[in-house]
Amino acid sequence: MPIKNRFSELLPEIVAWRHDFHAHPELLYEVHRTAGRVATLLHEFGCDEVVEGIGETGVVALIRGRSDTKGRVIGLRADMDALPIEEQTDLAYRSTVPGKMHACGHDGHTSMLLGAAKYLCETRNFDGTAVVVFQPAEEGGGGARAMVRDGLMERFGIQEIYGLHNMPGIPVGSFGIRKGAIMAAADQFDIEVHGKGGHAAMPQHCVDPVVVAAHIVLALQTIVSRNADPLKSAVVSVCTVKTSSEAHNVIPARVLLRGTARTMDAELQAQIEARVTEVAEATAHVYGAHAEVTYRRGYPVTVNDAGAVDHALAVAEAVSGGRVDPDTAPLMGAEDFSFMLNERPGAYIFLGNGDTAALHHPAYVFDDHAIPYGASWLAGMVEARMPAA
User: What is the C-alpha separation between 220 and 272, in angstroms, rounded?
Assistant: First the structure.
């Protein structure tokens, strides 16, 4: 099962779709143009059913094979949303929308799944039903969770689900995957430090929340280095420090710290959540201040089912000629495909994007040469998991 010849023939058409999506990026759930174009194309391909509005602006289509003797249903997912980034490329099809850019390659993911859907509609060389899922709001909006809550799995009878993400640093035509946790859980916290403000020249009459906040930032770093199992991966980062005053000679009354915690298993996630609160509150108390902590669970750990990885790996090896890393390093980034994998067995695989700028960088460029590999893998998962009767 090497790259399917049909995708070489379809490449100019798929590239044209991607460039159009890239030139018209949309954020979160406001992907109305993108979703509308996806739905129109799915109808044109001859999908048996096209449903819009799943998870607000998600699109789902059913493609039935030549037979359905076993009642099998396999899902394939792509994300559609862009990022609030000002593009810094000289592409002919660069973003036409100020402050918005497809800097993560979701335009490529959507286009590859559209290509796979067109091929599957043409061939129908499988026994069962393929469900193609086009999701909004992956970038922080939890679009996968919204689609699951809208009954995605139950309504369409999905039994397994698969997805991919392009990855700079992996050669084009290569894949990376692993069993178990492949991407981290991502939580957020706010710590508001309350002190006693006053004149900067008379600190003895104040409780300086800036100094307290500085100690909290340093103390939080001991959670990973001294509380977490050193054989487990975790990150605690404070990313924002904001005071209630911007004057040079005023000790503020409040300081707001904002940050993120990343973990690779649920037990460690719970431990870090508890310690962030304990450390912040206790450190503030030592210096006569008070800390209020708000901790929010975000995307869960993305966990690949072991059996599903075996299936995904076999297809990737066939498509790439064996250029697959079966034990690729997990990433501390997060992915809301995790919500779908919590509902059904499946796997998430990385697709090589070559030596490009990093994801979420304003100079990032999706490599169109990766399209035949990604589309072949997506279509190949359907044919491999539901072979024709």
Answer: 10
Averaged pLDDT for residues 85-109: 98
Six-digit token pair at 227?
């509380």
Strand 290-299 relative to strand 185-194, pairing: antiparallel
Sequence-separated (6 or more) residues with CB below 8 Å from residue 294: 189, 190, 191, 192
Cβ-based neighbours of 221, under 8 Å, separated by 6 or more:
236
* Chain segment 207-254, per-residue pLDDT in tens: 999 999 999 999 999 999 999 999 999 999 999 999 999 999 999 999
CA–CA separation, 299 and 80 (whole Å): 18
In sequence order, what are the residues at sequence separation of 6 or more whose Cβ sits closer than 8 angstroms to the Cβ of residue 231? none
* Tens-digit pLDDT profile for residues 316-345: 999 999 999 999 999 999 999 999 999 999
Would you tell me how many other CB atoms lie within 10 Å of the CB of residue 99? 12
pLDDT band at 4 (very low <50, low <70, confident <90, very high): confident
Give the pLDDT score at 389. 84
125-150 burial code (b ≥16 CB/10 A, e <16): ebbbbbbbbbbbbbbbbbbbbbbbeb
Domains and CATH numbers, the chain: 5-181+301-385 (3.40.630.10), 185-299 (3.30.70.360)
Tokens 């957020």, residue? 188
Q: 257 and 231 in contact (C-beta within 8 Å)?
A: no
Q: Is the pLDDT of residue 204 over 70?
A: yes
Q: Are 348 and 109 in contact (CB under 8 A)?
A: no
| pLDDT surpasses 80 at 2 | no
How confident is the model at residue 170, as a pLDDT? 97
CB atoms within 10 A of CB 267: 10
C-alpha distances (whole Å) from 133 to each of 170, 172, 290, 330, 359 are 25, 24, 47, 24, 22
The residues with which 290 forms a beta bridge, in sequence order, are 194
CA 189 to CA 257: how far, in whole Å? 8
Tell me how long the chain is: 389
pLDDT at 147: 98
Q: What is the mean pLDDT of residues 245-274?
A: 96
Query: Any alpha helices (H) in the chain, and if so which ranges?
Result: 5-23, 32-45, 106-123, 143-149, 152-156, 209-222, 266-286, 306-320, 337-341, 371-385
Q: What region does 233 belong to: left with phi over 0, alpha with psi -120 to 50, or beta?
A: beta
Name, in order, each residue with C-beta under 8 angstroms of 92's C-beta and a sequence gap of 6 or more: none
